Amino acid sequence: MNLLSLKYFIAVAEYSSFTKASEHLYVTQPTLSRQILDLEDEFGVQFFIRARHSLTLTQAGILFLEEATEIVNKCDNLKEIVKSENDKKIGALSIGYQSFLNTKLMYNTIKSITKKYPRIDFSLLRGTPLELRHQLITGKCDVIFALNTCMHSIPNIECINLQENKLQIAVPCNHHLANYDSVNMKDIADEKFILLNRDISPFTVDYAISLCMKNGFSPNAAYYVNDAEKALLLVGTGKGITFLHSMNKATMTLDSYDIKLLTIENIDDELNFVLAYKKDNQNPLISILISELIHPNGE
């Protein structure tokens, strides 16, 4: 016995006809008849008196109909109770994000929450790492999606690791390093670099330069640009090489730049994609966002 078989039984009882009940339920008549026979076999009683042109309930069938109807109604009410509980989740959550990041995870999470809790509102603020840090500290953003390196040295901030993000090297396809899949930092010490302006992404730029310094050299900057796309265009034309982290949106259209990305050997996870929020933020919707990020679709 299951909820579906109870619903089938109720429909047959209400219509006093297998034919009409099967049309209502959009199932075949043999399927419906089989379900009712299985119920009767399970309980060891006959629920219907079957005549050539009529179908009536037995006394056992009448009693079973009363109980089955109550069970189905309770299950339907349970759905409404759960739904109404979800409807109680109401409020607003302010979210900051960096425009150059591939934030598909963020959008999918917001979409899922909106479906479950339609009365929750989101405000989205796109900004530079410095702008988002300021918005988080001052409370204008409840949470921000950012790179781990942007959150260093901020007191009272909790970071939840979401996705691995690694710094990579982009080289022209005809570059001698393009024959490899990975590179050691010391192998690129003599290269010309195309670097982002520091005021665009100070934390990522500082991280890249610190890697160079740790390996005994200062990058020889041939060009400074304002975004990764310009950097990749210059790399493709042979003007130099550049750093690019794996979650940068520009990596989604690499084929058009005629370049190859190389992983950098033996580097840490300072650039991982994280969700950051203030530990003392009392907005209850933060926990809903975190839960959906960690356990999407209730998994």
TrEMBL record:
Q: Which PANTHER family match?
A: HCA OPERON TRANSCRIPTIONAL ACTIVATOR HCAR, TRANSCRIPTIONAL DUAL REGULATOR HCAR-RELATED
One of its Pfam families is LysR_substrate
Hey, which family's this protein in? Belongs to the LysR transcriptional regulatory family.
Where in this chain does the record put each HTH lysR-type domain?
1-58
Q: What are the protein's UniProt keywords?
A: DNA-binding, Transcription, Transcription regulation
Looking at the UniProt record for this protein, which Gene Ontology cellular component terms does it annotate, in alphabetical order? protein-DNA complex
Which molecular function GO terms apply here? DNA binding; DNA-binding transcription factor activity
Organism whose genome encodes this protein: Carnobacterium maltaromaticum
Q: Which domain of life is it from?
A: Bacteria
What name does UniProt use for this protein?
LysR family transcriptional regulator
